[in-house]
Structures are given as C-alpha cells and as structure tokens.
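Fold this sequence, please.
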Amino acid sequence: MPAGRRNLCERCYWTNTARKRIAIDAAAFSSPAMAAAFREFGQWLINAVGPHKACQTIHRYLQFFLDINDRWPACANYQALLDLFGAEGLRRARLPMRWLKETRGIVADAALRQADSERRRIAAILASFPEGNVGAKALVAFANELEARHAQGKTSLHSIRLALSPAASLLRRGDRDGRKLPGQPALDDFLAESPGQKAAVTGFVNFLNDAFGGELVPHIDELQVEKARRSALEGKLMDLLRQNLGPDDVLKRWIPCALEYFHDVPARAVKALTDHDVTRDDSGAVVTLNGIKYWVPIGATSSPRPRCPTLPPSS
C-alpha cells in the first residue's frame, strides 16, 4: 500500500475520495431528483474515466447540473438542453451529454444543433448595432421579413444569416453605429471592396428602397474593382518581400500571388503547384502550368511591375 493510505489500495483511495466530493457537490441542489441524478453521473464518471480523474474533474461539471436544477426532469430532452446551453455549451459538456445519452437516451440532433448555431449567429449580427438606431431598426425589420419567409418554408436560417451579414456590413459602411442609412456612395464603396457580395446584399438594398424610400442601385464599377484587386495584390507582394521567406513559403505564398498579379492566373489554378513545376534562375523563376511557362521575380530586390511576359509553350 502507498504510504499514508493505511489499508487502502490506490484505486480504493481515489474512489472513496471521489465519492466524498460527489456527496459534497450533491448537497448544492435544491431538487432531490437533481441531486440523485448528479450522484448517478458521478458514479458513471468514476467508471468511465477512472476514480483518479473523476476525483479531479467532478467539480467542473457541477455548474452544468446546477443550471438545470430547477428544470429537471422537464429539461431531460435535447431541444430543452439546446435552448438552455446552446450548441457551443453542449459541446463543452461532452461527458455529461455522453451520460445523458447512455442513461436517458438523449441523442444530439445535428439539424437542431445547426439551427441553434444559426439563430445565435443571427442574434449576434442584430445585436451588433446600438438598439434604437435607425440602422438597427432597419436590420431588425429586414430580419423579420426574412423570418416570415422562413416560417413559410421559402428560405433557410443559413440563408437568413448570409443575407444579414452583408446587410450589417453595408450599414457600417454608411455609419459605424448605424445612426444613418447608407447612401449610394457607401454602397458603391462596399461593392468596390467586396464585389462578390453584390447578389447577397441586393435583397437588403431592395428592402431599404421599399421600406425607407431609398433610391440605391447596386452596380459594380469593373474598372474600380480591378484597380482595388491589383492594389491589394501589390500590397500583399510588398508585405511578403519584407519577410524572410523560406523555400516552402516562396512556393506556397509568393509564387501564387505573383502569378495572379503579373499574369492574372487565379490562385485556385496553382493549388497543386510543386517544385517540379518551378525552374529557378538568378532573378526569378519560370513556372509551368498546363504547358504554358510564366516568369515571376523572386528575391528581396524584386518589386511589382505592370506585367511580365508569358513564355510560349515548350515544344
């Protein structure tokens, strides 16, 4: 026997200690049924993870059971637990949820969990503006309209979130706190920076026009978008030049960006790029893609230039 344990073996010592801590924690419940459920969970935990670990961790699960103290056994279903803790809270309570599954048959529902996550993200978007501001009122009214469509089965919670996110971004473009609605310049700036959001934000623009008498027109200035894109790429290249890039960084970060800047080769086209596709020289590298050779500069002395020549396909 270990010193100080008298006639108890290691497992018996930790089992007794764990049970004492379970009994102390169980006294915190006002509901006898909940206290009994916690003691049942404690014994299950001893068997599941061992008495030593159960002794060390039992107290961290007390708050989970205290939170449902007044709702037991009415809370003994997944939807009720989801409403109380949210999807993220239930993910953190992995062992209590495993116990509920094994002893109460409460099984996680992926669809309910996804819906809860979407609703909480939607609520976070709506809460991102001070309550009572015209921007907040417009966003809430737009959300209510989308919720009505969801109730009719015409849209999903995921689509609602995807519509509210660019709507909130557009409102911030007009005024960070949503104290005024965005005008045409704000919409133009938003689309110039995020042209891919045109379809997503059009529904909110139409809503503002109908509900608030706006005259916004979502259009994209292709020349301005291209200028912004090239400016962003140039900034990224200059940032990379200031870094001490290793061979892997040159292959995975510099070359894809340089190909897009100098030759308009989209980044997705070079995802599978390997060293076998690159031939280095003193001032740069020749990259072969689909039989076409592109030259790009490499090195601390390189700087972005308007365009680089495309070499003819190798024979």
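Strands lie at 278-280, 284-289, 292-297, 310-311. Confidence is low (pLDDT under 50) at residues 301-307.
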